[in-house]
Write a structure and sequence with these properties.
The chain is mainly α. The chain has 2 helices and 2 strands; from the N terminus they run βαβα. Helix 1 packs parallel to helix 2.
Amino acid sequence: MRGRRLKKLKSVDEIPEQMTEQEAAEFYGSHDLTEVWDKLESLEEQIAISAGLKKSIEGHHD
């Protein structure tokens, strides 16, 4: 995945509200959230994600 350009998000409105784990992995693996990071809402509750999604996300942020 290295060398691939990530699409920079300009607004949190660009983030889909509902995604499957596969869709989330693909979305977050291809988008740069640095411009909107401070505008994201915190979740009060913890969410469980599959080991596959966790591995995919971690692989994009090494």
